[in-house]
């Protein structure tokens, strides 16, 4: 048989390379009934597209369209040399077993300390795969690298990996491809059975793939390869393909190259393509090229999909003929899936979805983390509330879980099944429930009754039994354990949709592969920690493909480096801002760039991203849309990518001329891409067209939402949606009428922000922090406060700091020992150091307090007014008599003068300005109560004492100056301020004025409304 040439068809995009391949295949198939021909495409998506073109040309008989692995498999089966394929989980297992074996025998000098970490197994498995595809053996690596410890270890692991594969008679993809090449060299008849081999759609080849093709360079087998290229000297974007072309010329000395053309595209797309080869003055974009900017990646995705949907609906472009290309798949893919779902666009995802972002898979990894981290409070409650786990069979439905959460606060559960047991046991043993309100009665704490606590304890014990783990067992036993656990929660029956089912199916496959991998690598005992860590890391790196209906059209979604060989009518390319393209490149920490180049590995730096951009913008036959986001996550301006800027200049637009779409911009109803958008736009316009009246019921909630948003977006708060309760002023005037007793703290909360008073004092909400180890700031304040109080009372001479400190020394050990139970916290591991530190602070504060002014001696502590049988402080105001109750921390006397002291743990917002603003009212209220209500003498001074800083706050009553128009100074001026603020505050409360007004200096973190309030302002300093 005569020599048949190897032909390389080169040319720009849309120059007819695939069409020429198709024609060659059809001609070959028609030449003889027995003729066979193969077309090899890079992936399944392109295989499907190519098969459709063949079918449309009525010429599919006798032609196989496959990927390269299918050809490899075919050759090996016919040669009787097929081996089981080692997929990623098996490869990882082999690498991790090699690492462990080498560590046990002290053969790892560089990676020994981290040999058990899944991250290292994954990294080395990736490098080994690269070396395998480059045809580099472990010995070849060592020879090229020299004695570098990291690479010596890599070579050792690689050697064990290869030996294990050989021992079990399996092979990985690279090994199977190399094996097929070897078969073809010794038995060319297997290749000659094909009359024609077409390899289309590739932008580059790995060395082992080229070996295989080279082995098929035989007399009698015609081979046609295609590659992007140009008749011109290659520009920056085409360099990468020129390199591949040179390599092909080296491997196939008799290669015939044909440059195809002309490009069959609309003129603007031809001009854009030409710009990659030679400088162009300008391009008239017409309707073929559009640029669009949006503020965020989400809005960008919405606009790109809206454009594609419009092309499909209005211009009847089949979905299969359209694609969305992305620069940053990890950032964009979840957004694309979400928006496409809303727009009703079925997708074909070339790379699949990340298992780590699939909700049911997150539940699985959280379950493993629950056991690993010993039942952390938040994670336990989150899992019990997960819709993927049926815990009702354990008696843990919604109300019960709420009770469990309340119990965790009451019992200060941080983590540990023992803490859960202790909290529930204590609640189960407390006295009769008759005195306690039920969960839905006013005043309820939400805590379970003793009987309910006992039930909860039983449920938690069952759960703990279900999740009990052995110290070690084989991997297959761990997989069985996990499947049993998941089945016991009906996990696999609780999928919320097709995506969940696909992810769960993939999880089953991963678990099966782990069992297989154990059979391959040999039995070994695994700890639960190792199993959980390894499985979690594997799931994080695994992707799944949502099932699609191949009969219906699907919009293709492709990451940028993988768009070679695909052609569509309309293409949207998203993500053209700085840092997205070109993406930031990082060097390989294991194999440096010089060595990578010497070994024939793909470079990590200078990857030729211009080539990716060229491929992306040349995928469209009709229309191309380029988009970019303009605002980064932090609200900063996001600069455009240089490629965007080049295209923009080419089509003669300035940046300000590029249309910028904002989510809130008005748009015609016909541009709505989903029912939700129709409803949204109709609410904005105020009416719905007759043809869409069926949607009317959906509008009401949106109208109300719009009202709320508009009210909250106003410059100042003044609506029923933000604290205007004036409609309820009668009720409020009753509640807060003449008989109401006020506390200084409540008055201060309104003085700080009316809405803070509304959410805290009126709605009874509290900012609840999850329990942590050690006392929280409030508990610590109470503890230090009580210690100081008791020390002064126990001291023989309270005006002598030495005597007070001796008393402190005596009482502190017992007080500290009782503190965890008394205040309800769990000591941290630093408890002993913390106690010593607090005791030192208290001693120093006693000395400093004595030094601020000589002659004062304490005479009363915890002095009540308005409670404990004492009269309330009465203040006459425009609102009538206002009655105030409180407890004065300490009173000192010097001669006939009295001084009030209020202890504080933190030192912020204690200045005169805070009194003038109405945020601090305690001190004048206490002073006035001591003088006027309790008749303890004339108050001449008052101060806040900051315990942990050992100093007084800025406000001193003796030196206080009021407003400019106030003549009084000292306590009297402070009393006048108090009266004015009390009058204002009570009036505001009775009138129902609770509009939020962020305090100067920022909102306090303890504000219960901070989580939802639209007027929240950060910047608060202090505790
Ligand atoms: S978050 Fe700020 S503005 Fe809003 S209620 Fe709280 S303190 Fe007031």
Describe this structure in words.
The protein has 1023 residues and is α/β, with parallel strands linked by helices. The protein has 36 helices and 25 strands. Helix 6 (138-145) packs antiparallel against helix 7 (149-168), helix 13 (297-315) packs across helix 14 and helix 17 crosses helix 18. The termini are far apart. Bound molecules: iron/sulfur cluster. Residues 753, 755-756, 996, 998, 1003, 1007, 1009-1010, 1013, 1015-1016 line the site of iron/sulfur cluster (SF4).
List strands and helices in order, with pairings.
Layout: E1 6-11, H1 17-31, E2 37-40, H2 44-56, E3 63-66, H3 68-78, H4 88-104, H5 118-133, H6 138-145, H7 149-168, H8 173-186, H9 189-192, E4 196-199, H10 207-215, E5 222-228, H11 239-251, E6 256-259, H12 267-274, E7 289-294, H13 297-315, E8 322-326, H14 329-343, E9 347-349, E10 353-354, H15 359-372, H16 377-384, H17 398-410, H18 417-428, H19 450-466, E11 472-474, H20 475-488, H21 498-521, E12 525-527, H22 528-540, E13 543-544, E14 555-559, E15 568-574, H23 593-599, H24 609-617, E16 620-629, H25 642-650, E17 660-661, H26 675-685, H27 696-713, H28 729-735, E18 741-742, H29 744-752, H30 754-762, H31 777-794, H32 801-823, H33 831-851, E19 857-865, E20 873-877, E21 880-884, E22 886-894, E23 897-904, H34 912-917, H35 922-933, E24 938-946, E25 951-956, H36 971-991
Parallel strand pairs: 1-5, 1-6, 2-3, 2-4, 4-5, 7-16, 7-17, 8-14, 8-15, 9-14, 15-16, 18-21, 23-24
Antiparallel strand pairs: 10-13, 11-12, 19-22, 20-21, 22-23, 24-25
Helix pairs in contact: 3-8, 4-5, 4-7, 4-21, 6-7, 8-10, 13-14, 15-22, 17-18, 18-19, 26-27, 29-30, 31-32, 32-33, 35-36
The protein binds iron/sulfur cluster (SF4).
The site of iron/sulfur cluster has 12 residues, from helix 30.
